[in-house]
């Protein structure tokens, strides 16, 4: 029946989404990330931007071996001629090397501001814009 086919396809797509979370990270090929290892998928971290480390409070444990520790592998730091810095690495289980997520961090100076961003299934998403000057021109405070 048509209704049964719809339910069956919804069930298959739900299983696929539960097993792997796919996304494009800064124009790079699709990266598979495991949603079963995290408590919350890409939590909003506000202005928190990490260029190293991991947000362990969001790590549920490795779905393969139940280990509660992660390590980083495949660390790359790139800086282009404009001064934009890109840091990427992969969070993996410290015991069985199961890939949990790909972490992407960027930093650049744009005019009078430092712009930072972070995007990671485990660590979350965050952005920060900080003035280079001691007094932030966006804050129009009268003395």
How would you describe this protein?
The protein has 143 residues and is mainly beta. It has one helix spanning 2-19; strands spanning 21-23, 31-33, 70-79, 85-93, 99-110, 113-120, 124-131. It is built from one helix and seven strands, in the order H-E-E-E-E-E-E-E. A hairpin with a 3-residue loop joins strand 6 (113-120) and strand 7. The longest helix is centred in the first third of the chain and has 18 residues, at 2-19. It is elongated, with a radius of gyration of 19 Å. The chain starts with a helix and ends in a 12-residue tail after the last strand. 20% of the residues are buried.
- What are the low-pLDDT stretches, counting only 5+ consecutive residues below 50? 1-30
- Assembly context of the chains: single chain
Distance between the termini: 73 Å
Secondary-structure class:
mainly beta
Number of helices, counting only DSSP H or I runs of 4 residues or more: 1
The radius of gyration over CA amounts to: 19 Å
Overall mean pLDDT score?
Answer: 79
Strand content: 35-45%
- As a percent range, the share of helical residues equals 10-25%
The coarse silhouette is elongated
Describe what is shown at a glance.
The chain is mainly beta and 143 residues long. 13% of the residues lie in helices and 37% in strands. A hairpin with a 3-residue loop joins strand 6 (113-120) and strand 7.
Topology record:
Elements: H1 2-19, E1 21-23, E2 31-33, E3 70-79, E4 85-93, E5 99-110, E6 113-120, E7 124-131
Antiparallel strand pairs: 1-2, 3-4, 4-5, 5-6, 6-7
